[in-house]
């Protein structure tokens, strides 16, 4: 969506559009899966996507893996991973998956320009972001990498993580 709308233009209508288009995309990704308890993986995501007013392709490429609070010099903790992920990029988007025990958490995040980051979360329920048994999709804009790190730690809640680069291309207007 950051290729379609500037981050400063995002509002509740655009987030509603993200949810509706994301639901349609998810339905397309699972339409051929017959197992009732199948857990969708990154490899199951399809390339073709559309968000009005464009159709386009999206590629997900494994980029970095690590442990959220690792202090080993040779392995990535989340801070080192984010620095490395954005290094030499003016803008870049990704998906992070965090695993802690049997719990899996996901978030989309990115850098749209110098000192402008975002994090999109549509899974959070309850504290620390919401009241008990409440939740809603939301996006947070951050002006520092440290703030992005802070909010990702809050919503992912620790564990091992996997970061995927998300690249969109071949944009064409919907006719």
UniProtKB/TrEMBL annotation:
Do you know which Gene3D superfamilies this protein is assigned to?
3.90.70.120
State the source organism's domain of life.
Eukaryota
Q: Which PANTHER family match?
A: AT05186P-RELATED, FI09606P-RELATED
The name of this protein is: Uncharacterized protein
Q: What is the lineage of its organism?
A: Eukaryota, Metazoa, Ecdysozoa, Arthropoda, Hexapoda
